[in-house]
Amino acid sequence: MSTSSRCAACRHLRRRCPSDCIFAPYFPANDPHRFACVHKIYGSSKVGNMLQDLPVELRAEAADAICIEAECRVQDPVYGCVRMISLLQQQIHNAESQLVKARAEIAVLGSHAQELRHHGQDI
Amino acid sequence: MGGSSPCASCKLLRRRCAKDCVFAPYFPSDDPQKFAMVHKVFGASNVSKMLQELPVHQRADAVSSLVYEANARVRDPVYGCVGAISYLQNQVSQLQMQLAVAQAEILCIQMQQDPPAASFPTQIDHHQDHDRSLLLSCSNINPQLLAAGFASSSSNAIQDPLKKESLWT
């Protein structure tokens, strides 16, 4: 039996790859690292169940998202992709503070300009 | 012989809670939902392996982030945390645009008031440039781009991310 047609998941799990393999469309044989990460973090049965619980048209996006999260967790076993969320929240906080300051400065400059105009009219 | 009550994990897994249970410090019995969520998404044995591979002083943070990810995945079974990242990236982009508009407006007003002496009105936060380039490297949900952005971010100092309570609720 040819083993070259097995998906990355079935290769990793050392089993036959059935024609209706839940993993095959999303874990092609040419990217073994992708399934290896997902298997390490979630395990094959959890991922299989997650995909099976979703309508077919959403499974590709879900597989991609799961892979990203697993890759992040492998690279950073403490924070995973939550580190990115923390960084972004910090960015938002900084940008909001700067925006408040900028708008306050606009208000001050605007009222200063108005004062100058009134002065100019009085003279 | 008084036995302390089993932790939430051992209760759910219906087993005896050993004195050195790896879950017990992080999954107290009064919050069964926390472990239930993590078990649903990651599985108890995977969580146990992950915790055992970490030094003890990092395990609490790891549990918090796993709980956060699990919650996100349960709320959004398709995109999970990645959906939240995408949403926050959009927010950052919008805020940066608004900031650029405001700074341009300041410059205009200053130039109108005092053309020869016009200078940059606000201190541009140069740290933002570094973070901006970091975030631009993961500006969409493309896995390669996002992973690249993550890889470059992991070398940055994150200032007490777990002190932001909203992250962990």
From TrEMBL, chain A:
Start and end residues of each LOB domain: 5-106
PROSITE patterns for this protein: LOB
Protein name according to UniProt: LOB domain-containing protein
Origin: domain of life: Eukaryota
Family membership: Belongs to the LOB domain-containing protein family.
UniProtKB/TrEMBL annotation, chain B:
Protein name (database record): LOB domain-containing protein 12
